[in-house]
Design brief:
- The chain has about 230 residues and is α/β, with parallel strands linked by helices.
- The protein has a single domain, classed as CNF1/YfiH-like putative cysteine hydrolases (4-Layer Sandwich), CATH 3.60.140.10.
- It has 5 helices and 10 strands; from the N terminus they run αβαββββββααβαββ.
- The strands form 2 sheets. Strands 3-4-7-6-8-9 form a 6-stranded mixed β-sheet.
- The longest helix has 18 residues.
- It is globular, with a radius of gyration of 16 Å.
- It starts with 9 loop residues before the first helix and ends in a 7-residue tail after the last strand.
């Protein structure tokens, strides 16, 4: 399971309380154009990764992911999941919930406030990037939790990149992170193009929609068991 904590997440995982993971393609799981069916087949492996970190799968909190820019704060109890109408989630530093975002070419972005321990995880594809969901996340995290961007580490997941896509998502996202106040030295880009390696990653474009979904996770290590 350690392969699900790739080196580009080392800056975040260096903080012992953090559980940041990226689950790529799962060998042997059939893919199709039915997103819900494929996710159902992937869920047992995804839940095993959560349990490896001592996280009860019932603590997983997901966004509906509608290709917008809205984000929502979540906690250990509260509304039903996935949270409707949002593409990003954030929580306080003492929350035991685990944030989750599915991707298959779009970027997942982990945000960690090294001062307060607050966490954020967003889905930023072509539309979300155009709408600057990055800026929306930092605006909301500052307003609700007092998070200051200059204290944050941000990591960009594997995603589709030129020449396989006409939009350079990571370049735009990095510019938005800097504009939000994240220090350049605290921005980590995985540098991986999902469309260039479909043996390791799912790619909606390269596989013409007949694909699976990767899962980005961001939680706390070994929280108490869910009731």
């Amino acid at each position: 399971m350690s392969s699900f904590a790739p080196s580009y997440l080392d800056r975040i995982n260096a903080y012992p309380e953090n559980f940041a993971r990226f689950i790529p393609r799962i060998p042997g799981v059939p893919v199709s154009t039915d997103r819900a069916a494929v996710i159902a087949d992937l869920t047992p492996t995804h839940e095993d990764v959560l349990r490896e970190g001592g996280i009860d799968p019932r603590y997983l909190r997901r966004a509906q992911q509608v290709h917008g820019k809205q984000v929502a704060i979540v906690g250990d109890i509260g509304c039903s999941y996935p949270v409707e109408g949002v593409d990003g989630l954030f929580c306080g530093g003492v929350a035991d919930c685990c944030l989750g975002i599915y991707v298959a070419d779009c970027a997942a972005i982990w945000v960690y406030d090294t001062e307060s321990g607050c966490r954020g995880l967003i889905h930023s594809g072509k539309v979300g990037t155009e709408l600057n969901i990055v800026g929306e996340l930092f605006t909301r995290m500052h307003k609700v939790l007092g998070v200051c961007a200059e204290n944050c580490i941000a990591v960009i997941s594997p995603c589709i990149r030129p020449p396989h896509y006409e939009v350079d998502l990571p370049t735009a996202i990095k510019a938005q992170l800097r504009e939000a106040g994240v220090m350049p030295e605290n921005i980590v880009d995985s540098g991986i193009d999902t469309a260039s390696d479909t043996s390791t990653y799912y790619s909606y474009r390269a596989e013409k929609g007949c694909t699976g979904r990767m899962l980005a996770l961001f939680g706390r290590m070994n929280p108490p068991a869910a009731n």
